[in-house]
Amino acid sequence: MYYLSILLGMPISYYLSHHRLSLWHRRGRSRSSLSPVDWAAGLLKQCTYLEPYTVTSDETLLRDIGTLNRTRPVVIWGYASSLHQLARFAGQRSIPLHRPRFIISSVEMLYPAMREAIAQAFGCPVYDNYGATEVGRVAAECTRGRLHVFTFNNHIEVLDPAGRPAAPGEEGRLVITPVHNRAMPLLRYDIGDLARVSKDDCPCGSPLPVLGKITGRVIERFVTADGRTVYGGYFIAMFYEHEWISEVQVLQQDVDLITIYYRKMPGCVIPSQAMAQIDDAVREVMGASCRIEWLEVDAVPRTPIGKHLHARSLVWEERQRRDM
Fold first, then answer.
1. Domain boundaries in the chain?
2. Within 13 A of 274's CA, how many CA atoms are on the CB side?
3. Higher per-residue confidence, 307 vs 28
4. For 276, what's the count of Cα atoms within 13 Å in the CB-facing half-sphere?
């Protein structure tokens, strides 16, 4: 996190002397795996950890808001979906939130509507951070909103379908070579994400190269019965204006079957025809024969580390396994 703070204009002394809050799974890390600055920050106990919302309730959210307002962190770092859920909960109940200097979102796709809701609730800028467990920090946004690559951690390439370097502005598969792995080198690791090569330099003045927009994980492609593919972000956008939904995951079970797991916002009534309108939007791209089932759950499915995949296609995943 220290490197992101430097990119956003926070000097070492400020980083060490001010409190931070992480909406993040806390795991044990050996001292040798930490940078000296992060080790010192841990020693000074300048960070409060809150668990991401694998299972949530009004009591959990109210408790975490109380902790946040009491500790008054200068920076908040967290899962995109958990930050978004906390922001929406506070906004709908008119609960004031402490205003940090900035918020760093990570782990999941930060969609525009999510960024806007978080920024409005907390009254501060929201910056996206990109990384993975296998390779660590890869890139993060600067104050100009450009995604800078941490070349001191990883060497990255964007490849076209033929495995050649993608042209500027062209979308391709992101492959990463970490430069600090001591146990097992990873060479041109295909992380399963799509990105674009930037066409322009960044006016912020950072010497770190700029990566174009991360456009989503490869598994966020839905396969239609006639063989077309649909970007998973299309399905997420359908729910932006539906305040009655707290959490959602759109899962493609088969080419003609989509399951929508959803958690209703407490106290909200499902508007008449709301589900039918979403069904129509799904069939518009997936085909008229696509079956859609809605399942209300206490918490939408998460990955083992608590990541919320908003859109997932089992059909695409199986295709990827066959092609390996």
1. 1-132, 145-217, 221-323
2. 15
3. 307
4. 3
* Residue position matching structure tokens 């782990």: 107
Residue-wise pLDDT for 248-305, tens only, equals: 999 999 999 999 999 998 888 899 899 999 999 999 989 999 999 999 998 888 766 5
Superfamily grouping for domain 145-217: Luciferase; Domain 3 (2.30.38.10)
Q: How confident is the model over 55-79, as pLDDT tens digits?
A: 466 888 899 999 999 999 999 988 8
Q: What count of Cα atoms within 13 Å lies in the side-chain half-sphere of residue 281?
A: 15
| CA distance linking residue 311 with residue 324, whole number of Å | 22
Which whole number is the average pLDDT over 212-236? 75
> Are the beta carbons of 132 and 191 closer than 8 angstroms?
yes
Q: How many residues does the chain have?
A: 324
Quick one: pLDDT band at residue 52, thresholds 50, 70, 90?
low
C-alpha distances in Å from residue 201, one per residue of 15, 139, 151, 156:
28, 15, 15, 17
Q: Are 214 and 111 in contact (CB under 8 A)?
A: no
Rounded distance between C-alpha atoms, residue 163 and residue 233, angstroms = 25
pLDDT tens string 139-187: 999 888 888 989 888 899 999 888 899 888 888 888 999 888 777 788 8
Model pTM score? 0.67
Question: E-assigned strands of the chain?
Answer: 20-23, 47-50, 75-79, 102-106, 126-132, 136-141, 147-149, 154-159, 171-178, 189-197, 210-217, 221-223, 229-231, 245-254, 257-264, 291-296, 311-313
Nearest to 242 by CA among 113, 66, 151, 122: 113
Phi and psi for 16 in degrees, rounded to 5?
-80, -25
Could you tell me how far CA 281 lies from the centroid of its own chain? 24
Give the pLDDT confidence of 240-264 residue by residue, as tens digits.
Answer: 778 898 889 999 999 999 999 999 9
Determine the CATH number of domain 221-323: 3.30.300.30
